[in-house]
What we know:
Layout: H1 4-10, H2 14-20, H3 47-51, H4 65-78, E1 82-86, H5 89-100, E2 106-110, H6 115-123, E3 131-135, E4 151-157, H7 169-178, E5 182-186, H8 191-194, E6 204-208, E7 222-226, H9 231-241, H10 247-279, E8 284-288, H11 298-304, E9 311-316, H12 321-329, E10 334-336, E11 345-350, E12 367-371, H13 377-395
Parallel strand pairs: 2-3, 2-4, 4-5, 5-6, 10-11
Antiparallel strand pairs: 1-7, 6-7, 8-9, 9-12, 11-12
Amino acid sequence: xxxxxxxxxxxxxxxxxxxxxxxxxxxxxxxxxxxxxxxxxxxxxxxxxxxxxxxxxxxxxxxxxxxxxxxxxxxxxxxxxxxxxxxxxxxxxxxxxxxxxxxxxxxxxxxxxxxxxxxxxxxxxxxxxxxxxxxxxxxxxxxxxxxxxxxxxxxxxxxxxxxxxxxxxxxxxxxxxxxxxxxxxxxxxxxxxxxxxxxxxxxxxxxxxxxxxxxxxxxxxxxxxxxxxxxxxxxxxxxxxxxxxxxxxxxxxxxxxxxxxxxxxxxxxxxxxxxxxxxxxxxxxxxxxxxxxxxxxxxxxxxxxxxxxxxxxxxxxxxxxxxxxxxxxxxxxxxxxxxxxxxxxxxxxxxxxxxxxxxxxxxxxxxxxxxxxxxxxxxxxxxxxxxxxxxxxxxx
Length: 396
């Protein structure tokens, strides 16, 4: 049951909501932030209460007031009925898939999915007779032809975390729901601030809170939110596995949440600036950024998203491995590493060809993914410019 306070907040703009959601100061003696509850054992006042508890907390694995504050906040922001916290983004993917599938089932997974998602499907779910079929991310409503009687879920990721493929989420969701299939979206790139997953037809939405929610590269966290139809089943599956996150991580995530809208806005601005600058570079063949008008799927992005994050990719013109390594290794402001969404900029060479099966990754040169942080854009450009000098010197 949503409170009057919650209903009033829903009418506010998102930058305001992220500062307010999940906070109830006068339940905690007026302190602005909820306290950190560390604990495993929860006591009951008597035997009757132990047998049929009415109290909100019964054991540490099922959550504490600290973790519940973040779950409530995220549900409000995502437009969800409920949210559960788990220790990583991959754990969130696994929990969502396990909630929506069963032994002998058939899954449809976008060919552009985060590679560890594929490893989980092919390496774990397959052991229980679950068949995973990968599909072209551009399939749209035609996905209906791939749905079998035993299909239980369709997993989307829009955009793909390396190749930046945009999917028509509402069209796929409509086709899935006609046949009673659960729609799961990895929404980490956009977050609910720029793409409201449940409003667009998703039943379960995944977020790697490690990234933009944390914002500081010091936290591992995953979230799965659910609509009213799937909320009870999600919570039941979560309780069976007892894979909750610790209260300290939840407190850090709550802190990150309060500045998330500001950081996303700045990283969006900086990333677009750098993406356009890179598009004009003679060493760059093309930029893969959904907000650029020439990006495949840009019209869908413009229709369904309210913003873009700081992550995009580029395809260089043909260059040797040594030249690309010189470009990347000498960068001073771009760390080389996985993940994204922190205050620091990152770069990652990648090649999707080794794992895509439903589509072919055929590009004209080496590929790099960038995550733009909070540094001054002029400094980042100077660093990249020096990198291109190194690349050209070895590639000429």
